[in-house]
Design goal:
Helix 4 runs parallel beside helix 6. The chain has 24 helices and 18 strands. The protein is of the alpha/beta class and about 750 residues long. Helix 13 links the parallel strand 16 and strand 17. The chain has 3 domains: about 200 residues, Chitobiase/beta-hexosaminidase domain 2-like (Chitobiase, domain 2, 2-Layer Sandwich); about 220 residues, Glycosidases (TIM Barrel); about 190 residues, Four Helix Bundle (Hemerythrin (Met), subunit A) (Up-down Bundle), CATH 1.20.120.670.
Length: about 750
């Protein structure tokens, strides 16, 4: 695609015009239209537009700048502007103060300079300022058009472009312009990434950018219902960070994690502080979060289940008549009280969220038709029962005037019945495997006239570190297909299936999802990786330190998959190494354990040596370091399981050689024996994990993870005691118990 951006290449006339154009820019933001026209006519008389940039040139410019998300249109020029103590951020609309303060903070954090923000109603007398203006100013639009920069059409014709922006930088000043405060905020986020180190200050290269989103809604759905419940401070940090990458929708999968007044049994309690205080979100906290997110142009999307995934309610006996199966997961549609229950919980939750959407969940209703609904399902068909329940929930929600989202995994099985659903509902098809195409789970909904939001996954559940190689392909292809089939947005999902996942490990997947849903078509994973160091950490342009750390953390998944062990899972870490199944698993993993540990240790070493390179989001490095040590401990466990067994078998088979047998046993249990080292590594991991949890979450649920460390450490300690007893037996009788008796199955 070509576009009419002015080419400014260092010729004598354009260089002379730079200060004049920037002075005109300042006047155009603030002066009457008649004065604007005089300036524009004079500019037109002075120079003409030069040839357009090619698509390849645009891509090269984007790669050079390392911006995330990558802008749609970029044209580089010669020159730059240097930030000075005298540089001022100019705004003419009070609503733009958040954008101005965002830029002010970025510059202050990186240089110590705190630029002043001025609300101006008259043209400044000097150049060199950063002006934040609105494209609703006709004079400003005319000025930009005079420079070959379109300020209408793609940036002014439909709702998507309320979020678009223009940046123009010369050596005399900076202009960021947009139709709305939201668009201006996004322009400032891009400008923050354009600030390059220049000695002790920062400089911005001369260029023109026009940019707007490819999808109207770019979201993240965070599972806060199965273990970790983030603190209010951490949720605010999530909001700020996601907004940097132009995310505008943040969903919470809540289930029971709300302090219901009508359902007082279910909300989690923070017993570590006060057993009477809810660890769940309270109405006051939600109101605070809604207001806070609004400052950063993020809409909060509550997901309160209305069908499946309700075990945290249904496990209580007082809800037994609402459960499809006793103490199960799914509400029964056959009991009218089910709909009274939905009205009650929605009556508390829905009014707290002023956004246009509400997510009713309704996924994985596998029990439906097996219990109370069995006869009805046999009579009407399971698909009709399912879809009619969604229709009833839609009717309950009508007074709230919300657009209802629902997970698309069940309804897609009944494409011929989708017309039952009201056209105002929004299907959210999800699939977390890396596939070449997702058309088959998108088009049944679009063919039925329903809107769609696609939901890839961050690959962070049940694993020590997110499986990014799989997640990146899943996100790239699913979002690409979502755009192809006119999805209104993307909702990148995190999950906590086993209650252990931490968000600080998930940022690469979340930022890639943000980039892919803003950028058009199929986003480049390689370009993302090459940009990540700069865009997320403000590490030097040509340095890939943190991208290499991420690759090292991701490599164990591929190594273990290569020996048919899926990935570096929590299950593998927690498996008992001293039973036959655990020993066989360790034997399968042993060929890759060395490479696994080398990757993990390179990651840990790099993080410890290079922390100072992270000039932004340095706090997330702690989560990466935790993952590195966790992976290394997994590799150590695999290796030591084999070595301990081998040493014991050697001692057992050579009992008549006292020196050899004793040396073998000392390798297993001694001051630096392998069992002691394994126990020490596990208890150290317990401490590190608890610290990582505390950085993000309430104390609630943490004990359910720490007990796993305690159990594994106890298993190793029990083995220390058992081997020491065998050692004492050997001293007395020169005989050892059989290896299998002690749980050593690998010869």
């Amino acid at each position: 695609m070509s576009f009419p951006l002015v080419s400014i290449h260092g010729g004598a006339v354009p260089k002379l015009l730079f200060p004049i154009l920037v002075a005109a820019q300042s006047h155009l933001l603030l002066s009457p239209f008649t004065h604007v026209m005089k300036i524009v006519k004079w500019i037109f008389a002075c120079f003409v537009c030069l040839p357009l940039a090619s698509h390849a040139q645009v891509n090269d410019a984007v790669r050079q700048l390392k911006l995330l998300p990558a802008p749609k249109e970029v044209r580089m020029a010669e020159g730059k502007i240097v930030i000075k103590p005298s540089t001022t951020i100019l705004i003419s609309n009070a609503e733009d103060r958040t954008a101005a303060e965002t830029l002010q903070k970025e510059i202050h954090d990186r240089t110590g300079l705190k630029l002043s923000i001025e609300f101006v109603t008259a043209a400044p007398k000097t150049t060199g300022h950063i002006s934040l203006g609105r494209l609703t100013d006709r004079g400003l639009r005319i000025y930009l058009e005079s420079q070959g920069v379109r300020a209408t059409d793609d940036l002014g014709s439909h709702d998507l472009d309320k979020q678009g922006y223009v940046i123009r930088v010369t050596d005399s000043g900076v202009l960021v312009a947009a139709r709305t405060a939201q668009g201006l905020f996004y322009g400032v986020q891009t400008l923050c990434q354009l600030l390059r180190p220049e000695g002790k200050t920062l400089a911005i290269p001369a260029l023109v950018i026009r940019d707007w989103p490819s999808m109207e809604w770019r979201g993240v759905s965070d599972d806060i219902s199965r273990g970790p419940i983030p603190t209010l401070d951490y949720l605010k940090m999530q909001i700020r960070t996601l907004a940097e990458y132009k995310i505008n929708l943040l969903g919470f999968n809540m289930e029971h994690v709300f302090d219901f007044q009508t359902q007082p049994l279910v909300a989690p309690r923070d017993a570590a502080k006060d057993a009477s205080k809810a660890a769940a979100l309270t109405p006051a906290e939600i109101k605070e979060l809604v207001a806070y997110a609004g400052k950063y142009y993020i809409t909060l999307l509550p997901e309160q289940q209305a069908f499946g995934h309700l075990h945290q309610f249904l496990k209580y006996e007082i809800y037994s008549d609402l459960a499809e199966m006793p103490h199960g997961h799914v509400l029964t549609p056959t009991n009218p009280k089910t709909y009274d229950f939905i009205r009650q919980i929605y009556g508390e939750v829905v009014p707290l969220f002023p956004g246009p959407f509400f997510h009713i969940g309704s996924d994985e209703t596998f029990e439906l038709g097996l219990g109370q609904t069995k006869a009805l399902a046999a009579q009407q068909g399971l698909g009709r029962v399912y879809l009619e329940h969604l229709q009833k929930v839609f009717e309950i929600m009508q007074p709230y005037h919300k657009q209802l989202m629902f997970w698309g995994d069940i309804a897609v099985k009944y494409p011929e019945l989708l017309t039952i659903l009201p056209k105002d509902m929004i299907a959210v098809p999800w699939d977390y495997d890396p596939k070449p195409s997702y058309q088959n789970i998108i088009t049944p909904y679009t063919n039925a006239g329903l809107r769609v939001v696609v939901a890839p996954g961050a690959g962070n559940w049940r694993v020590i570190w997110p499986d990014l190689d799989s997640a990146f392909v899943n996100i790239r292809n699913f979002v690409r297909d979502g755009q192809k089939y006119q999805a209104i947005g993307a909702l990148n999902t995190t999950w906590n299936d086993d209650g252990e996942s931490l968000v600080d490990m998930t940022w690469p997947a979340l930022v890639f999802g943000a980039a892919a849903s803003w950028q058009p078509g199929e986003s480049s994973i390689d370009d993302f990786k090459s940009s990540y160091d700069w865009a997320f950490y403000r590490n030097n342009d040509d340095d890939r330190t943190f991208a290499e750390v991420i690759e090292n953390l991701d490599r164990p998944h591929a190594l273990l998959a290569g020996v048919k062990l899926d990935n570096a899972s929590h299950e593998l870490f927690w498996s008992d190494p001293f039973n036959e199944a655990g020993a066989n698993t360790a034997a399968r993993a042993l060929p890759v354990a060395h490479d696994l540990r080398i990757s993990a240790e390179h990651a840990a070493e790099s993080l410890m040596l290079n922390r100072a390179k992270a000039h932004l989001h340095a706090e997330t490095l702690d989560g990466m370091l935790l993952a590195a040590w966790h992976l290394d401990t997994l590799g150590l466990k695999i290796q030591f399981t084999s070595e301990i067994s081998r040493y014991y078998w050697d001692a057992y088979q050579n009992q008549t050689d006292v020196t050899r047998a004793q040396q073998d046993l000392d390798e297993i249990v001694d001051i630096n024996g392998r069992l002691e080292s394994l126990r020490d590594a596990i208890t150290e991991m317990r401490k590190m994990y608890a610290e990582g949890w505390a950085r993000e979450n309430h104390p609630y649920w943490l004990g359910n993870v720490l007990v796993r460390y305690d159990n594994l450490a106890a298993e190793v300690q029990a083995k220390i005691v058992a081997v020491q007893a065998a050692q004492r037996q050997y001293w007395s009788t020169k005989t050892l118990p059989a290896p299998e008796q002690l749980g050593f199955f690998l010869k």
